[in-house]
Amino acid sequence: MREYEIALVAQPDLDEPSLTALIEKTKGWVANSGGSITKIDLWGRRRLAYPIRKQTEGQYVFILAQLEPKATAEIERGLRFTEQVLRFAVLRTDE
């Protein structure tokens, strides 16, 4: 298992229950792939460096997780098809 950081920029107009549901959905993908969540860091609403889908702000969420390398593809696929996610990155942090 390796340490990964899953960085999400969600739509700025999501309310608290919707953002929590998005985080829970992501945690479910990690759990289904055999991984475990180490830490969840909510940065809240921040200004974007450049507009994404006509949005100038986004809600930032960082999730530290332990995953198998092949499990990242499934998590990226799930995030890619989630409408509430403006941008995401799955990065390896243990190097």
Outline type = globular
Parts with pLDDT < 50 across at least 5 consecutive residues:
none
Please give the order of strands in the largest beta sheet. 2-3-1-4
Content of β-strand:
over 45%
Calculate the mean pLDDT score and round it: 93
| N-C termini distance | 13 Å
Run of helices and strands: EHEEHE
Helical stretch tally = 2
Q: What integer value in Å does the Rg equal?
A: 13 Å
Per DSSP E runs of 2 or more residues, the count of β-strands stands at 4
**How is the biggest beta sheet arranged?**
4 strands, antiparallel
Instruction: Bin the helical content.
Output: 25-40%
**Pairing-aware structural class of the strands and helices?**
alpha+beta
Descriptive terms for the model:
95 residues, alpha+beta, 4-stranded antiparallel beta sheet, 49% strand
Summarize the structure.
The protein is built from two helices and four strands.
Structural notes for this entry:
The protein is built from two helices and four strands; from the N terminus they run βαββαβ. Helices cover 27% and strands 49% of the residues. The chain starts with a strand and ends with a strand. The mean pLDDT is 93. The protein has 95 residues and is an alpha+beta fold. The longest helix has 17 residues, at 16-32.
Summarize the topology.
Layout: E1 2-10, H1 16-32, E2 36-52, E3 55-67, H2 72-80, E4 85-92
Antiparallel strand pairs: 1-3, 1-4, 2-3
